[in-house]
Amino acid sequence: MYRILKNQRLVPNLYHLVVEVPEVARSAKPGQFVMVIPDEKGERIPLNLADFDKDKGTIELVYLVVGVSTRKLSRIKPGSSLAGVAGPLGRPTEIGRKETVFLVGGCFGPAGLYPIARELKLAGNKVIFLTEARDHAYVYWEDKIKAFADHYFNLFRRDCFDSGKTLETAFNMVKLKYPELSRVLVMGCDYLLHKISTLTSSSGIKIEVYLTPIMVDGTGMCGACRVTVSGKTYFACVDGPVFDGHGLDWVEYFARRQAFLPQEQLALGKLEILPPEQKKT
Amino acid sequence: MSKLESFEPGLAKKLSEEREKDWRKALRRELTVQQRLAIPRHRMPEQPVSQRIKNFQEVNLGYTLELARAEAQRCLDCGQPGCVAGCPVAIDIPTFIKHIEAGEPERALEKIRETNGLPAICGRVCPQEVQCEKNCNLIKAGKEPVAIGHLERFAADFIGQLSEKVTVSTKECSAGKKVAVVGSGPAGLTAAADLARLGYSVTVYEALHLPGGVLAYGIPEFRLPRAILNSEISFIKSLGVEIRTNFIVGRTATLEDLKEDGFRAFFLGTGAGLPAFMGVPGENLLGVFSANEYLTRVNLMKSFKFPEYDTPVPAARKVAVIGGGNVAMDAVRTALRLGAKEAVIYYRRSRAEMPARAEEVKHAEEEGVIFNYLTVPVRFLGDSQGRLRGLLLQRLTLGPPDSSGRPRPVPVPGSEYEVEADLAVVAIGQSPNPLLIRQIAGLKLGRWGNVEVDWESMGTSLSGIFAGGDAVRGGATVILAMGDGRKSARSIDNFLRKC
Ligand SMILES: Cc1cc2nc3c(=O)[nH]c(=O)nc-3n(C[C@H](O)[C@H](O)[C@H](O)COP(=O)(O)OP(=O)(O)OC[C@H]3O[C@@H](n4cnc5c(N)ncnc54)[C@H](O)[C@@H]3O)c2cc1C
Ligand SMILES: Cc1cc2nc3c(=O)[nH]c(=O)nc-3n(C[C@H](O)[C@H](O)[C@H](O)COP(=O)(O)OP(=O)(O)OC[C@H]3O[C@@H](n4cnc5c(N)ncnc54)[C@H](O)[C@@H]3O)c2cc1C
Ligand code: SF4
Ligand code: SF4
Ligand code: FES
Question: pLDDT of chain B along its 499 residues, tens only?
């Protein structure tokens, strides 16, 4: 169980993990996530499903190395096993028909959006896909995604001083070109989610953001993941993880994400010195 | 004795037959009733307060054989044992106690195990003072009740496992038939053990990565050491039960999927995992936790050993816990052990109404927990960073009884006051975990989102699906959950014989 088939660097800051979990692969739907426990003393961390294969019984994950758990994860060799994988969790992304959907992914986002793009495309929707990245070295799966996108483009943060402006330009360009645009899905770092939500607040278009609050069980049992949307509290792991970016209480969301910052830094400091290939990405 | 008959027809007769055995008669004659009544109740040896508030080891150290035998002598071996009727699974209490008095704890444990599969756990966590011990006839004689829970725990701990002795039936009709148990709490584990004994092929599915339900994620080690839980679980595995962790029924596979995989009957023991919040302003501030999150971090994820274990737990100086049940006591005592300078319970009724086990309240008081009765937070107060800095509290008085029969707390106008706190734990109750049960088409749910069952059989509105424990009762007790699991196992056996 939970045997790792592949665990290697995808781009400088992201790793690509393929694990055997037949039951999860069998039930997985685009937009869902799993809880991963790296080792016996590990934390339960949520990661989006970047792909799944019923026949092979495998799932794929793409993760950013940030703290102790993801760092530990990056050190586990193929052939060995994770302590646990539970899922699929969260509501699958709704797949409509004949809609024009704009998918915006940054960091690990393009990976998690990939199966969503595929499903949307196969259901007859028009898929516009934007990868937001520092520069070209951070772009991955371009060809894979293009196979299911009507229109694919990259946006590099390095190219402009004020990236918010560029996102805005990109968004307006898409809106102009596809006036029928009705949905926008955003996955990636908080910055991206927040930026798009604010710059589209008067556009009349629904922004669906994939939130990444701190989670413990991922099954609705603890309330660690609670977020406020339009004045109401939700448990992101069972009610989400997708929410209306215009209704979210961002201030609270950002604050709650920082809950364990001092402890995380302490733990990271105690983790032994990084192997050379992982220093500084 | 009619109460006894409601457990099991012929139980009263069975008890009195046991009682009339020669060894029992002889033992009764060894001491007079007066001599027995003169023995004071033997206190449970405990870790000293100053030491225990710095560790997560068990507070109660357990009786020695000498203490246990001396305590067993207090039992009068009554012809009409009130204790048995007070125990939700009707353990033959006088028989097991007399085995201890006779110096045969092994036989005591065998007796207990006839009706209770988790004695080491029940002896520790049952609210004895409102169950078996409440009905002990010694109370009528003006004495303290026999320490039935302590003795049960003693028998279980002294002997450890009986695993070699277990015989699993290989009845033709059950052999090979697959039964799925959802949830590995006391309800699920008991159902699984009984079904395995009946010869069924049982798989327990558990959403979390470790089995045990609340026993694993909720109740702290200082009340229930994990070694005890683990040995009970390996005992159940030794019966042939397979436990699949990290498997969320309804997500990893649906009941339909499991039916396709050949499962013929289901037991839902999914518990009451959904934490209630108060719905007052500021509840999502940093530093406000549900008891489930706080306790899960510490117990299941072992964050009291952070950073050896990776899951962090908030450090706090002043901790406010809202609630008066076992969950609140566990949270507040955990906070003390994690180094809180001040740990306070805010409970909206008075001490008399507090639902926590008496022993937990006593331990909490000894450990320096401050109890504030008749108070309720009306707002959590935050600083500019969204961190909790205090609570706005309101005083209450007790009015006429509400639907639960307890006096209704009534706010005192103008009584609001502020206190400082950097961590608050909300422990005001939980309701049935909706994840699976709301997903099953046609499954009848009650007013609180609980699974509705026929109490005779524990059958739900759907054929072949049975349910018990907190999923049915809301927050109840370990022993009631186990009783439901046992009843369901019998009903599943009846059901599968027919098909
Ligand atoms: C539903 C969901 C899906 C997710 N999918 C993915 C995914 O596909 N790929 C991926 O790389 N990550 C994903 N995340 C985020 C991932 O869970 C966290 O990055 C991870 O838990 C960090 O663990 P750590 O121990 O390595 O870092 P920690 O030590 O816990 O944190 C280190 C630093 O990272 C920051 N951090 C903490 N939590 C998060 C977070 N949730 N997201 C980003 N930064 C965080 C903290 O501010 C902290 O300073 C997802 C989160 C959720 C809730
Ligand atoms: C902190 C705390 C302290 C307590 N103290 C006491 C005490 O001292 N004495 C006492 O008698 N009672 C106590 N109780 C109550 C007692 O623990 C419960 O009544 C009892 O555990 C209920 O048992 P259960 O088997 O019904 O459910 P649970 O113990 O809740 O177990 C349910 C299990 O099902 C799993 N599950 C849920 N949904 C799914 C799904 N879809 N798929 C797979 N698995 C699933 C859950 O993860 C969980 O492990 C306490 C409760 C708490 C929370
Ligand atoms: S199971 Fe609980 S109620 Fe029954 S005798 Fe044991 S401690 Fe008492
Ligand atoms: S009622 Fe009390 S004294 Fe009588 S048999 Fe039960 S435990 Fe013993
Ligand atoms: S992570 Fe525990 S409720 Fe969502």
Answer: 457 777 778 888 999 999 999 999 999 999 999 999 999 999 999 999 999 999 999 999 999 999 999 999 999 999 999 999 999 889 999 999 999 999 999 999 999 988 888 899 999 999 999 999 999 999 999 999 999 999 999 999 987 755 445 555 555 666 789 999 999 999 999 999 999 989 999 999 999 999 999 999 999 999 999 999 998 899 899 989 999 999 999 999 999 999 999 999 999 999 999 999 999 999 999 999 999 999 999 999 999 888 888 888 888 999 999 999 999 999 999 999 999 999 999 999 999 999 999 999 999 999 999 999 999 999 999 998 899 999 999 999 999 988 878 889 999 999 999 999 999 999 999 999 999 998 899 999 998 899 999 999 999 999 999 999 999 999 899 999 999 999 999 999 999 987 6
Nearest atom in ligand 2 to B205's CA: 43
Pairing of strands B318-322, A100-106: unpaired
**Buried-state track A82-106, b at ≥16 Cβ within 10 A, e below 16:** bbbbbbbbbebbebeeebbbbbbbb
Q: What share of chain B is helix, strand, coil (3-state, %, to 5)?
A: 40, 20, 40
Q: Does B439 touch chain A (CB under 8 A)?
A: no
Cis peptide leading into residue B400 (ω within 30°): no
Q: Is the CB of B271 under 6 A from ligand 2?
A: yes
The H or E element that residue A127 is part of is strand A126-133
Cβ distance B43 to B60 under 8 Å?
Answer: no
Under a CB-based contact definition with an 8 Å cutoff, are residues A165 and A147 in contact? no
| Chain B residues within 8 A of A68 when measuring between CB atoms | 307, 310
Token pair belonging to B440: 């099953």
DSSP-assigned states of every residue in B33-95: HHHHHHSPPPPPPB--HHHHTT--S-SB----HHHHHHHHTT----SS-HHHHHSTT---HHH
Widest distance between CA atoms in chain B:
76
| Centre of ligand 2 from the C-alpha of residue B273, in Å | 7
With tokens 């699993």, the residue in question is B168
Determine the topology of domain A100-257 in CATH. Rossmann fold (3.40.50)
Minimal-distance CA residue of chain B relative to A224 = B293
Whole-number Å distance, alpha carbon A245 to ligand 1 midpoint, is 19
Check CB contact of B296 with chain A, cutoff 8 Å: yes
Cα of B145 to ligand 4 centre, how many Å?
A: 8
End-to-end CA separation in angstroms for chain B:
37
Tokens standing for residue B241: 């039960």
- Distance of CA B162 from the midpoint of ligand 2 (Å): 25
Domain boundaries, chain A: 2-89, 100-257
CA distance B397 to B18: 51
Q: Complex ipTM, two decimals?
A: 0.92
- Give the count of Cβ contacts less than 8 A between chain A and B: 123
Which domains does chain B show, CATH number per domain? 3-160 (1.10.1060.10), 178-273+431-498 (3.50.50.60), 277-428 (3.50.50.60)
Q: Which CATH number fits domain A2-89: 2.40.30.10, 2.30.40.10, 3.40.50.1970, 3.40.50.10490?
A: 2.40.30.10
For residue B401, cis peptide bond before it (omega within 30 degrees of 0): no
The residue contributing the CA closest to ligand 3 atom 7 is: B149
User: Could A37 and B209 be called an inter-chain contact, meaning their C-beta atoms sit closer than 8 Å?
Assistant: yes
> CB–CB of B302 and A270 under 8 A?
no
Contact between chains at B246 and A88 (C-beta distance less than 8 A): no
Percent of chain A as helix, strand, coil, to the nearest 5: 30, 30, 35
In this structure, how many other beta carbons lie within 10 angstroms of the beta carbon of residue B407? 17
Which candidate from A23, A86, A255 shows the least CB-CB separation from B385?
A255
